[in-house]
Amino acid sequence: MNPRPAPARRTVPDAPALRRFADAHWGREPVVVGDTPLGITAADAHTLLLAAAARPAPAPLRLSTADGVLREPGTLLPGPADRDLAGYVARLAEAPQLGNDGWLLTVDDPLSGDFALWSRVRDALAGLWRHVGWPAVPVTAELAVGDRHHTVTEAGDPDAASLTWVIDGELTVRVRPEHTGTEYELRASAGDLLHWPAGSRHLDHRTRPCTTLRLSVPARTAAALPMVADGVRALTRRRRAHAQAPAAHPHPLPARPDGRVTPPAPLRAAARRLTEALTEPDIERDLLVRWAGLRSAAGLNPAPEPCPAVPLTSRHRLQRVSEIIRVADGHDDALWAANGHVWPAPGRAADRLLAHLRTARGGATVADLAASSGHHAHSPRLHALLRELCRSRAVRVTPPEPRP
Hints:
This protein has 404 residues and is an alpha+beta fold. The chain is built from 11 helices and 17 strands. It has helices at 15-24, 42-53, 85-93, 115-132, 225-238, 240-243, 265-278, 281-296, 348-359, 366-373, 380-391; strands at residues 31-33, 61-65, 68-69, 103-108, 140-147, 149-150, 160-176, 184-189, 193-196, 201-206, 210-218, 317-320, 325-328, 334-338, 341-344, 364-365, 395-398.
């Protein structure tokens, strides 16, 4: 009797497993969720590392050893001569500069330069958010590959939970949740997901080569403050009078007769402008625009840059391939968002166009979309909407077939 073959490991997250994880563990305790791969391979990670190393300075890579971060890693970073991740690891194992020491290479924002891999992670996150709620502030990513490296200083964000996927190798993490005397030791291998709630401190241990993708998920109200501050700062800078306000302060500061010193007038004026900005409708709309983009990206930030626009004729066919978020923006107007990008979609004609795109299984031609929305095929308003759909990669464009 032949033994039953072992089931094949998954290549994408399992929806029921994510549901069980969300119900039982999310935000509660450190846990390892087995066989929950992200769909990113070691070859994909190598591609991302090469792309990061090729970025103009300052490159977003840090190479660390037991002595700390190397200020000038030079040829120790991945390069075209490294055929794959295993080859890179083998090269560093023999690098005389490291003296056979363990090492860790980390990359901030590894995904925004590769839309295919970014969207793969976004889709996996969306599967989880459907059970626990959609984040209102950015989720950030860090790619790490290392060998025989052990962190010696506890790390952690008091306002963010962690999701760490092991892409290749094995990882051990010691986690200490806040306000408890308990330490968890999590052991994970390729395809596993590690999670710990906000406020936890952790130490990573790699005894052999290991590659991970770690996502920081804001989980507390204070995590929204940087995004709100960015919105207020942008609004203040758009006001010419505020932008030209002097920043110089007198020295020494004038004092009252009793010796007390008051804050300089420019600082008091800045505080007043901040208070005014928080009460204006413009800041609420700015936050709405930011939220719409994040919702369409499942929080994953930053999003890849838009792709170049495609000149369209009435016979080009467009098929929706990404979720298009519609957010009301006043009477009969709306914002559309897809893959992290947001643009205005005014009028009821835009709603009719969106309804057609959402229901057309095989796509629709520009002429079809014009007819259903009430535009003519060369309408500038129609083509402005279609151009943004193309640039955000919300639709796939098929060239027109040659005329017989």
